[in-house]
Amino acid sequence: MPTGPWEKRQVLMVVKAYPNPEDEYGEACCTAGVDDDDNWIRIWPIPFRDLRPDQKFKKWQWITATVRKSNDPRPESHELQPDTIVLGDVVDTKRAWTKRLAVLAPHYVKSVEELQEMQKNGAQTMGTIRPREVLAFVIEERDDPNWKAVQAAQLNQQGLFTAPKLALERIPYKFSYRFTCDDDKCKTIHKLQILDWEVAEAYRSWREVRTRRLGSRDALEVLAGASGQGPHLQFRQLHQIPRQIWDRRNRVPTKARATRRQLSERTTCQPAKI
């Protein structure tokens, strides 16, 4: 599939997966967000740990960068010129996630099955799903707890103009959620693996993963995406939000409607103060 032309785009970054070995950069992570035209955009590869400090974006931060459609057949997939990244504003969590939920509201799908059908039709491979019930947080040992030789060789690559960094740790566990979709038509118990960088960092920090039951005041949301060209979906990002702000009838945050209109009028991405 041919690539598209390079163009400057503004993207609100909401997904950052744990890095993996990669040919061009040695290691890179898959990221994704919503652009200022309200479209999903997947950006791979990004050599995040090799970026300059003033280019390392937070989740829920606007960036401006030069991107183009990649040769990945998934419609949302793009590649980026890392040295063009300029940081912008961070969307905050004030008033019970009102601004953030306004961004996500147009992108909800009812179930994993609905998203898989969209993927099959070539229309969409990313979406946000709200589980009806989270049944289990699953921790499993990997069959291959260490990097393979070819992966280790990729990770040992050092760029001429990048600063030295700590070796990328291979997380010896896989983390997944078992859940049901908030859709009466879905009768399946799903199990999707979590690729979120923050889950890996929790393991690295604590060396054990502690879970807590989601209380009645909270709602778990997952941003699912297709991996490669296969039919399988994986969790790219987890969001835990106050339950009371949801309008269950419309599946759209009550306070988010007006804010969504305000955000859609955004035409510039202001550089962050350094």
Number of domains: 2
Can you tell me the overall shape?
Answer: globular
Number of helices: 5
Determine the strand fraction and express it as a percent band.
Answer: 35-45%
Mean pLDDT: 81
- Largest sheet composition: 5 strands, mixed, barrel
The succession of helices and strands, N to C, reads EEEEEEEHHEEHEEHEEEEH
The end-to-end distance, rounded to whole angstroms, is 39 Å
Q: From the helix content, strand content and strand pairing, which structural class follows?
A: alpha+beta
**Spatial sequence of strands, sheet with the most strands:** 1-3-4-6-5
Helical content (DSSP H or I, runs of 4+) = 10-25%
Indicate the low-confidence ranges by residue numbers.
211-219, 246-250, 252-274
Q: Please tally the β strands and state the result.
A: 15
Rg from Cα: 19 Å
